[in-house]
Amino acid sequence: MPYLFILCLFIILLGCAKEEEKTTPPAQTPAVGETAYGNSQAVSNYLVEINPYVKSISELQAEIDQNAVGSTGKATGTNLAQAIKTAKPKLQALYNRFNQLEPPPLLAGMHRDIKKLMELRLEAYDLTIKGRTREEVDMDLSLYDEAQIRFQEANQQILALNAQMKKVNQSLVQVVTKQSSAIP
């Protein structure tokens, strides 16, 4: 199971850690102090607010990847399920707290995408834990396959979030550039 690939993709998300919404930004030119996603201060504050969540999600995945590798140097269903059992309550708590955040209106789509990422991970975690039980009972590995699909969907979510975050950051940079060029 290529969980290290998942980790690498999420680290990319962590590096960008500030993004946008799925809806297209307004066509008009924003006023000074306004990004295409709303007030620059509100957007910046939101990005600072979500950064610890993004970082924690990435750290949880790194913890899983590290703990899933057994003494043989390879990940096993047993090790992976145990690592996920440890991490799942932490991700669930992050998800519950994240749901209480209020994004700026034009970043609501990005906020939903981050929630979806966590939901996909939680589903993959559940499938992996159930898969381990099924593997022990009748050597059926099909739930691992379903878990892998959810992890792949989460990876796609990460790629979309990276693109969104890049646009939001560019929008913030444009505001700063406009403001600094307006200073005599």
- How large a portion of the residues is in β-strands, by DSSP E? under 5%
- Please count the beta strands (DSSP E, at least 2 residues each): 2
Order of helices and strands: HEEHHHH
* Assembly form of the protein: single chain
Range of helix content? over 70%
- Distance between the terminal alpha carbons, to the nearest Å? 58 Å
Biggest β-sheet strands, sense, barrel: 2 strands, antiparallel
Structural class: mainly alpha
Number of domains: 1
Spatial arrangement of strands, main beta sheet: 1-2
| Count of alpha and pi helical runs | 5
Low-confidence stretches: 1-30
Q: What spatial form do the alpha-carbon principal axes imply?
A: elongated
Mean pLDDT equals: 82
List the keywords.
2 strands; elongated; two-stranded antiparallel sheet; mainly alpha; disordered N terminus
Overall description:
The chain is mainly α. Helix content is 74%, strand content 2%. It has helices at 3-16, 40-68, 77-98, 108-138, 142-182, and strands spanning 34-35, 38-39. The chain is elongated.
Describe the structure concisely.
The protein has one domain. It has five helices and two strands. It has helices at 3-16, 40-68, 77-98, 108-138, 142-182; strands spanning 34-35, 38-39.
Write the layout of secondary structure elements.
Layout: H1 3-16, E1 34-35, E2 38-39, H2 40-68, H3 77-98, H4 108-138, H5 142-182
Antiparallel strand pairs: 1-2
Helix pairs in contact: 1-2, 1-5, 2-3, 3-4, 4-5
